[in-house]
Hints:
Elements (H helix, E strand, L loop, with lengths): L5 H9 L4 E2 L2 H7 L6 E6 L11 H12 L3 E6 L21 H15 L13 E4 L1 H4 L4 H7 L6 H6 L1 H8 L6 H4 L1 H16 L3 E5 L3 H15 L4 E5 L12 E2 L2 E2 L9 H9 L6 H8 L4 H5 L9 H17 L1 H12 L6 H5 L6 E4 L9 H7 L6 H9 L3 E3 L2 E2 L15 E6 L3 E7 L1
Parallel strand pairs: 2-3, 2-5, 3-4, 5-6, 9-13
Antiparallel strand pairs: 1-6, 7-8, 10-11, 10-12, 12-13
Helix pairs in contact: 10-11, 12-15, 13-15, 15-16
Amino acid sequence: MRYKSSFLNEAKARGFFYQSTNLAEMDEFLTTKGRLGYLGFDITAQSLHVGHLIPIFLLRLFQKHGHKPVVLVGGGTTKIGDPSFKNTTRPILTNEEISLNLEGIKSCLLPFLTFESDESGAVMVNNADWLDKLEYIPFLQDIGKYFSINRMIGFESVKAKLTVNDSLSFLEFNYMILQAYDFYKLYSEKNCRIQFGGQDQWGNIVCGVELIKKKLGKEVFGFTNPLLTTSSGQKMGKTARGAVWLSKDMLSPYDFWQYWRNVDDADVIKLLYLFTDVEVEKIKKMESVKGEELNAIKKLLADEVTTIAHGKDSLKEIHRVTAGVFGDSESDLASLTSIPRYHLTKANIENTSIIDIMVEGGVCTSRGDAKRLLRGNGVCLNNKAINEDYRIPLNLSTNDVLKLSCGKKKHLLIVLN
């Protein structure tokens, strides 16, 4: 099916579209550039992660087609926590923790969106600006009367918790109403008529659409994207070392690149559609590629998404590392900012084994894994093979840098402090 809107056509072709309200009217609405659409992020951590990339790239595509993304950060709703499809209640964060997380999330979004004051420049708003000021009784009288408990518990996100007897606190139950109120505020104050979100947000989004229809008699739209999963149906974005963060302070650009370079063969084409600017028609020609030839496509994927997230300079450095084209002088090694670092103090040299460094530095997942690599001559320090009995020299000077390599793909800089 072809749409009138160029945004919807490309969103559908790349795999961003899952479900929407009133698709025909939204399509017509989006034929005019400069339309506003928003996406919300609760700020529960100091960085976004790979699981957030589909909605982020969807906003990026929205902006590419001449529309204006509105990023709503949940300074208010983070104090409650979205219970949708969650097995546990989120811990309540302090205002100081939320403020710290907010700064980290802002920095994560800067590489993906252009924040300017023109027609398509993205803007950021914080729902704490209105939610923190709500008076409970007036809010119930003005907004609460539009919500049916029967309707709310009928949504899958709520029903799923109740069916398995998971606890759903009254505090969490309010989240759906507050998210709907966010949509109402953004429509009333900015004429924002589209809310984007993952498919698990469908119930919350529909509540906002219905609130605006009932209270103001106006038509707004909801658009959901599929969740990021592997071909086997598992959620993407996790490794043996934890979440794949977007912030370079929580995951090095080198490890970020390696994550994409090593995706499963069955997922690479889908990810190329979602997370790169490679033209749709060009990707279609790659769909028949199989076997060893997929390695070149995986490298293309890793290069493209890393350039967008971390910049061209980081990618050049990563290519230097993977090609082994760098010197061994202290200045050469210190310049490799994309490689993860392990900081070792002079006082701890004698009590820290090479196995400790490999595990704590994240190049191995266990001590057994580290021993197997060392016994198989798969570990080098400054390009010289070492074994499990190797000890870091005691005569190193402060700020000396050593390059630890595990095979051809994993590297770690050991920095003496």
